[in-house]
Amino acid sequence: MIEDNETIDEFLAHRSTDVEEAVRKAAAAEIMPRFRRLAADEIDQKSGPHDLVTDADRLAERYLTEVLVELLPGSVVVGEEAVHANPASYEAIRGEAPVWIIDPVDGTRQFVHGDDGFCTLVALSVRGVLTASWTYAPARDQLATAVRGKGAFLDGERLFAGPPAPGRDLTIATSHPDYTTQEQKRALLGLWTDGVAPRECGSAGLEYLAVARGELDATAFSWEAAWDHAAGLLLVEEAGGAHLTRTGEPFRITGGNALPFTAARDTATARRVAGLLASSV
């Protein structure tokens, strides 16, 4: 088992390209051959019509699980589909072993509908601290990476989110209403105010990438599942952004957050959005 951050740093220095290769191969082998070619029996519902899973999700996660654990002996995996099958496996995210956090197809609904707005998300966490992430949009052939303290990159180019341009409305991607409680709906109503332009989100991973690129000002999400957020939160942080819950604390991938929470292109914007989310509760 990995014992300290120095060893993780050494792993990332020498093996991060192997992780990137694994993500690309999973997409090439299991996701892209099914893109716009899914048969009806390759698609299932989990909790409802907006919560879909496909053979691509299951097989890509299986591929990544096998490869990543072999790359980093002693590590464990928290994957969306494995947790759906065995909810208790989510507890590994709070353990001592390094954790690979995997969303094999983030934006499954878009994938099923033939939209290219989906991605594969992988993050590495040690004792609840995100250390590295990979966000791959295979239909767009875009790969964004981040390593804590080393920066965020898209296809090798450094990302800087920067502050929003003054004098224009903040564009904020928000949770779909189907995934919000009544209290969260009230909190999100705080965004319907002058100077803010909220819209429903697409793939969470690609929304985080848009924040890191300075194309989207902030997100406002109401669920905690680490596979949706881990990769993107580190990407935003390393691009100069920030994340806060509606009570003003950084989001914790281990859970227990006051929801909704925001990730934004800079600290000032994160504070503004968190304040709006708190104002209606």
From TrEMBL:
Its cofactor is Mg(2+). InterPro entries: Inositol_monoP_metal-BS, Inositol_monophosphatase-like, Inositol_monophosphatase_CS. It catalyses: a myo-inositol phosphate + H2O = myo-inositol + phosphate. Mg(2+) binds at E80, D103, D106, D228. Its EC number is 3.1.3.25. It comes from the Bacteria. SUPFAM superfamilies: Carbohydrate phosphatase. Keywords: Hydrolase, Magnesium, Metal-binding. GO terms for molecular function: inositol monophosphate 1-phosphatase activity; metal ion binding. One of its GO terms (biological process) is phosphatidylinositol phosphate biosynthetic process. PANTHER family: INOSITOL MONOPHOSPHATASE, INOSITOL-1-MONOPHOSPHATASE-RELATED. This is inositol-phosphate phosphatase.
